[in-house]
């Protein structure tokens, strides 16, 4: 689907609010068959002009809180690195995560229980210096495939808002994430945020093995790279997708 999805917030109160900082969208085109076979029943791989995309997104989270409550002790701020692709349930385009590495054990434990997102414990670092954002992650989760990511990225152009219908818009205007329920069904969490202020980005990666558990070896440079300095986000509770 090439059209921009409906961006209206879902009905009902949101559950979580947070801020994403120093977020990099790093994207590679990949063979569709390498991803489609790994999706659960009820989801279809979403492609742009017939091309499937795999994204790696490192960022720092701050101010995580439940509705009406102050920031969550021990889990308000953390680092995250996710490996994702783009899907649809036939009604709402969204995101499917193959892995989400994070450096806070409390967050990892909670998110793996409900909504059963594939969070994995990792040792991580995030440092700004010399105009670059330096980001590193080494997975430490027991029983999970080893994976690492080390590199740096920086903005190389002025902020812009993606043109509706463009590839940049298609990759970033996603207002739902999907996960598998304990009984094998499908869950969807809706999210809402303001328009993306993307900046063209230069990425220099020293190591990147996140996609190797999928049987994919990504080129050292992403085909597309964008930086977002900050974005405020609200997330709704996961709901079962009715088929």
> Termini, distance in Å?
19 Å
The fraction of residues assigned to DSSP E strands is over 45%
Number of strands: 13
Reading the helices and strands in chain order gives EHEEEEHEEEHEEEEE
Number of helices: 3
| Global structural class | mainly beta
Q: Please bin the fraction of helical residues.
A: under 10%
In the CATH scheme, the class would be Mainly Beta
Query: Main beta sheet: strand number and arrangement?
Result: 13 strands, mixed
Poorly predicted ranges (pLDDT <50, ≥5 residues)? 1-5
Assign the CATH architecture: Beta Barrel
The number of distinct structural domains comes to 1
Question: pLDDT average, as an integer?
Answer: 93
Rg for CA atoms = 17 Å
CATH superfamily: Acetoacetate decarboxylase-like
InterPro entries: ADC_dom_sf (IPR023375), DUF2071 (IPR018644)
Organism: Mesoterricola sediminis
Protein name: DUF2071 domain-containing protein
Pfam families: DUF2071
Chain-wise SSE layout:
Blueprint lengths: L15 E15 L1 H5 L7 E2 L6 E15 L11 E11 L4 E10 L2 H9 L5 E11 L2 E8 L8 E8 L11 H6 L3 E5 L5 E8 L5 E10 L15 E12 L3 E2 L3
Parallel strand pairs: 5-6, 5-9
Antiparallel strand pairs: 1-3, 1-12, 2-4, 3-4, 4-5, 6-7, 7-8, 8-11, 9-10, 10-12, 10-13, 11-12
